Amino acid sequence: MLAEPVMTNIGIIHPDPGYWEKARELCDKYGTLLIIDETHTISAGPQGYAVLNGIKPDIFVIGKRTSVNSRAECLNTKYLGNV
Q1: Looking at the DSSP assignment, which residues form a beta bridge with residue 11?
Q2: Which of 32, 37, 61, 76 has its CA at a distance of 20 to 30 angstroms from the CA of residue 70?
């Protein structure tokens, strides 16, 4: 499942409470990766919206520059320790 943690193209629209917990549960149940695209929400707080709100993705995607030499980042959260 590939998704942005909140809708951002028409304002900031948060999902209903429990949405990400249920998404995580369904991905685990069916063996599907949960991929969170933080392109628009990475600036929501330290490590982005997902970490700030307790979302547990398998893969975390950042489509904006995070440093001078990077064009895009795709992080496997199993190696991030506190995610």
Answers
A1: 9
A2: 32
Between strands 35-37 and 2-3, the pairing is: parallel
Give the pLDDT confidence of 12-65 residue by residue, as tens digits: 888 999 999 999 999 999 999 999 988 777 777 667 788 888 888 998 887 655
Nearest-CA neighbor of 56 among 28, 31, 29?
28
Assess contact for 8 and 40: CB atoms under 8 A: yes
Put residue 17 in one of left, alpha, beta given phi > 0 → left and psi -120 to 50 → alpha.
beta
Distance of CA 21 to the CA centre of its chain: 13
Supply the pTM of this predicted model.
Answer: 0.70
HSE value, Cβ hemisphere, 13 Å, CA-based, for 59: 12
